[in-house]
Structures are given as structure tokens and as C-alpha cells.
Write a structure and sequence with these properties.
The complex is a heterodimer of chains A (about 110) and B (about 160).
Chain A lengths: L1 H9 L3 H10 L4 E2 H6 L5 H13 L3 E6 L2 E6 L5 H27 L8
Helix pairs in contact in A: 1-5, 2-4
Chain B lengths: L9 E7 L3 H9 L2 H4 L13 E6 L6 E6 L4 E11 L7 E7 L13 E10 L2 E9 L22 H11 L1
The chains are: A alpha+beta (about 110), B alpha+beta (about 160).
Amino acid sequence: MAYANAALTALGDPTRREIFERLANGPLSVGEIAHTLPVSRPAVSQHLQRLKEAGLVNDHAEGNRRVYRIDPAGLGAIRQWLDRFWDDALAAFKEEAEKDTKHPRREEQA
Amino acid sequence: MSGIIAPAPIRKSIRVDTAPARAFEAFTAGMARWWIKTRSINPTKSPIKDVIIEPRAGGRWFERGEDGSECQWGKVLAWEPPAEQRGGRLLLAWQIDGQFRFDPALVTEIEIRFIPIESGTRVELEHRQLERLGEKSADIHQLFDSDCGWSALLESFAKATA
């Protein structure tokens, strides 16, 4: 729950969205991101931290720089939530659809 | 795996032991009978009485509460019921934004295919463009109090994952 909110909240900020979209094209270091945005390096770092906490990006060290990329599970919590939602919904649908076969004229039944 | 725009679409596939035409009908006209009742965004908290997909491209997709109130979820983008032994296709727009409210400007697509197989129908569902769900969520705090908010849905989700 909190996790799903974190992902939504993190992407609610336009600068963070911008950063997230840049990363969609491939991994970048903090410096590389800051270079293409009118935002200071420390600010970029903070935004990346938020995205990381939300499970949207991850990072690893490359030499003395930190490289960020989109977490392949990206928007993980939102997706996970919908994934589960459709599992439940389709299971219920299957049950209903097959019931219909056995009772073809079955109409609204509260 | 780097470089892909997250998140990947959700893809589901299930087998239903009934003909594609009936599966399509059960999915659309019969949605109220299988839609999980807590999956409501109705601000009046009125229990779902009906879920309506107007049977045409451009039709609305909405819930109607027992008190008669209506809350739109999205719309029909393509309406292609199965005919004879051909499969069918339904393309819905899920227009629930990051604040879990109906937003006519937002579209995430749900494509449902009804494919004839020997024992009945394979139903394939794809929910895509999920990245758009994050775009308008600046004020997430409204989530639980908002009109047409998915509070009940989120609560049940929270319970399920607790």
C-alpha cells in the first residue's frame, strides 16, 4: 500500500518524471542527467533518491560514479497491484462465464 | 533489460470452457456478475448494482450504485464481438488516474481477445500504457477522500498484501 503510493507520489513531480523518462533511454550517471536538465546536481541526486525509494530506479557504482537506470520491474508496485487485480478479476470472470454455459438463460440474479 | 520503458504491460491469459461469443457476452454484458464488488470508485460508497459497458465503440464503461449514482471508469475503444468461429476483441480505455479518479483526458488501454480453441475460448488480456497512471498523481493525499476514489479497492489491496 505505502509502496504503491510511493511510486505514484514519486512520479507526481514533473522533474522526477523528466528524469525517469531520460532513464528510459538507458542508464545515466547523476552528472549526465544534471547536464541535460536545468537542475543542480544535488537536486538531481535527491530526485533519484526518491525514485529509488519508490522502487522505480536502481543504481550501481561504475568506477567513481553512480549510474542509475530504470528498475526493470519499474512502477513496480502499481503494476503489481494491477497484476493481482486482473488475476482476481479474470478468475471470477472464468467462473461466471462457465456457469453461464450450464445455465444459458440465466439472467440478472442478485 | 535496461532501456525499456517501465512498466511492461500486464498480460494475462486464461482458458474458459465456453464458446468465444458467450465468453465475450459474459465479459461485457455480464460484468456486474463477476466484477469484484469491492472494486468500486463510487464516492457515495453505494454498493455496485451494475457494471455497464455500452456495446459500441465510444460507449461508456461505468458502474451504477444501488442508490442509482453512476461513476465512469472508461470507455469502449473497439467493440468486435466474436462471430462464427472467429475470435473477438474488446478494447477498453481505463481512465482512472493516479488519484484514482475518472479522468477523461487519461487513457490506458485494456485489450481483451477472445480466441477460439478446441475446448472453448482463450481469453487474453493486456493492460498497457501503465506509465500514464503516474503522470497526474501530484496530490496523492486526496486518494482516500476523493470523489470516485478507489479507496475500497486500495484497502482490499492493502489487506491482500499485508
